[in-house]
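re: ur msg from earlier - yeah i can do the TLP complex, just paste it... oh wait u already did. ok heres what im feeding in:
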Amino acid sequence: MPKRCIDLRSDTVTQPTLKMREAMMYAEVGDDCAGEDPTVNRLQSLAAQLLGKQAALFVPTGTMGNNVAVLTHTNAGNTIILDSEAHIYYYECGAISALGGVMPITINSDDGCPNPDQVEFYLQRDPIRFPKIGLICLENTHNRRGGRAVPLEQMRDMQSVAIQYEVPVHLDGARIFNAAHALGTQVKDIADCADSVSFCLSKGLSAPVGSLLVGSSDFIENAIQVRRRLGGGMRQSGVIAAAGIIALTEMTDRLVEDHENAQYLAKELAEIDSLELDQTDFDTNMVVVNVQKIGMTAPEFVRIAREHDIRISYLDQDHIRLVTNCDVNRENIEYAADILVKLIRSIIN
Ligand code: TLP
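and the outut:
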């Protein structure tokens, strides 16, 4: 049997489908900085319609989507409130501060959604003595909280506090379609809990590049300026938007398979008592395992798994992360689970 390498590092590793490649080849294009790319315009209309917002803006990455949102909502010197493990805080190289002069206030929330009472404490502070809170950022699904789908009620509770204090809410919805499947709802309902939402085409949905930022028409009009300032104004970007249209029209339903595969992985790993893994902790396409419980560091475990041709990533010193995706089918998931279980058993015995 030929040797296989199974890549569960992230859903960002997915390859564009053949249909995407064909659509890219034949895409009708124009200068998007003049609003003249028909394929980008089509993608933006589709995104706005799916998420129930007035307008959408195509951006190269999820990171840029988040940063355009933060910089559009806030002014230099403002603070924003977000979970301490939020992607915006943890992975985006300090962009909100470096580019927007915005400071983060982080709230540690195990389930990925800051507690509204804690947020309210900051919102009601005396504006003469404390910096203005310009924005609240949520994340759904929450990457560093094990891909958790944050329930709508929690988001709505946060939104009502935000409305009360007239502070906008931005949602990093990089994996909003995964969240919708897990919550049994429509992306529109999730997006309805926020003023703006960024989401990615290039993760589980398999497009090679691209994210969208959605919000009100006024917000997007301002966001166009910020995107330009950040160097994100693209030209004949219909070439990549074409793949994005396929992602939105043909790739969202199949995310369920990724969730089922993650459940399978979690179930197999949960058989190992010393991992103390609770399968029910995972409701989307990620499985996070604390390998410190088997006496390993996460980077070390990642290295050993790689020697067995299983590629995974780590979140910190103790936790590894496995992300199911459309390029790893059930047969390969079963194969990977088998190798990982054997590997762990050989470590503990
Ligand atoms: N996440 C990547 C890495 O950056 C960690 C991954 O492998 O999961 N928001 C969320 C919630 C994300 O998970 C990511 C990417 C982004 C934003 C940024 O998207 P890109 O990579 O397109 O800038």
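cool cool. The chain has a mean pLDDT of 97. ping me if u need the other ligands too
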